[in-house]
Amino acid sequence: MISAQDFCDLLAGHGFTLASGVPCSHFGGPIAHLSTQPGRYVPAPNEGSALAVAAGAALGGQRAYVMLQNSGLGNLINPLTSLVMTYKLPILTFTSLRGWPDPATDEPQHAVMGPATPGLLDSVDAPYHTLYAQNGVEEFSVVLEKAEKDLAEQRAPFVLVERGAIGKATAANDPHTDGLPAAEAIRLVTAAAPQAAVVATTGFTGRDTFAVADAPGTFYMQGSMGHASSIGLGVALTHPERTVVVLDGDGALLMHLGALSMIGSEAPANLIHVVLDNRVHESTGGQATTSATTSFPDVAMATGYASAVVCDHEDAVQAAMARAQAASGPHLICIKTLPRTGTIPPRATNALSTLDIRDRFQSNLQQ
Ligand SMILES: Cc1ncc(C[n+]2csc(CCOP(=O)(O)OP(=O)(O)O)c2C)c(N)n1
User: For 324, what's the count of Cα atoms within 13 Å in the CB-facing half-sphere?
Assistant: First the structure.
């Protein structure tokens, strides 16, 4: 294992002074380390944006690297092929290897992408090298030298990072004290709309929802980060008689913020879009999102939602849920939530297969 500091220092020694990315727990250490120094890490909403930031920095004359989870390769492939490879920009990208080498040891949403990651890069002729868990600084230096060769040939290399290859560091975010515990917010929302169909976003939100409010009418969206509200829209349009509640995260909402415009334009009267805003990607280790400088209610109102409010205590959540069910939507309810403490409950897929989740949700919608 290479320490987070050695990882960042070695890259800085090669002139890589700027980084961007979307967190994976594999990169929690470097992101926490870089975030202690202003201007070294740009938290991107999605992996394509991260690559484009690095591309802009390269155009501006600065070497930059990107860190992402391989689940985000889909978000990155367009700017990789049409921007970075087309304009031959010198970007170095680190991709974690979830679902690899054995997909059975990881969560089901990584089963396809894990084994497919090397082949996907092969298919677009992107060079890659692998950093294994047992590798130290010396092996990382060798990997970087290989990447330098690729860069000298005007190719944009990838480094595939096995779990445990890079050490951890503590995230240095401002601990905020306003808001509700996330599980309590989920309990309040679901109790206020017991007949609703619920779509729960990926990560800890789905786990909390499974623990405090499991129901056949809940779809646990593990993976497909950022798409819970779009799924909710599809359900709401096909079942206008049913209230649909989306439980979103701030990081996930930011990843595909354009969905708000689509929802505002389609204007489903039965959709309640709840955002649990803890200002961090808590599920991957608490790396900051950019939600502190974004007003979700203002964005929602500007894109055609019927109402949008912020809540930070129990009464406000209950009142907002009552109002949302009494009037035509779409409604946005942004609940300020606190960083979680204690043990995080197990995933829904520890008890239910993805097909169980699909089938019981579908049959619940038909009732
Ligand atoms: C496309 C993609 N990129 C990255 C990830 C890794 N990932 C899983 S959960 C998560 C954080 C989600 O943050 P947020 O929506 O704010 O919810 P929180 O974890 O704070 O509850 C991330 C980055 C992913 N699953 N998919």
Answer: 31
Look at the chain and report how many structural domains it folds into: 2
Question: pTM for this one?
Answer: 0.97
The Å distance, Cα 222 to ligand 1 centre, comes to: 10
Ligand 1 centroid to residue 221 C-alpha, Å = 12
Minimum CA distance residue for ligand 1 atom 9: 203
- List C-alpha distances in Å: 362 to 172, 186, 225, 232, 367: 42, 22, 21, 13, 9
Mean pLDDT of the chain: 96
Are 345 and 212 found together in one domain?
yes
Would the pLDDT of 89 be above 70?
yes
Same domain, 132 and 9: yes
**Token code pair at residue 165:** 């290859």
Whether residue 198 is found in the same domain as residue 264: yes
Tell whether 143 and 268 lie within a shared domain: no
- Whether residue 166 lies inside any domain: the answer is no
Are residues 193 and 65 part of one domain?
Answer: no
- Name the band, by pLDDT with cuts 50, 70 and 90, for residue 121: very high
Q: What is the pLDDT, as a whole number, of residue 169? A: 82
Q: Which amino acid is at 300?
A: A
* Average pLDDT over every residue of 169-190: 85
Q: Strands 63-68 and 331-338, how do they pair?
A: unpaired
Residue 171 pLDDT level (bands cut at 50, 70, 90) = low
For ligand 1, atom 6, the nearest C-alpha belongs to 24
Domain membership of residue 53 as a residue range: 4-161
Q: Are residues 208 and 252 in the same domain?
A: yes
Is 16 inside a domain boundary? yes
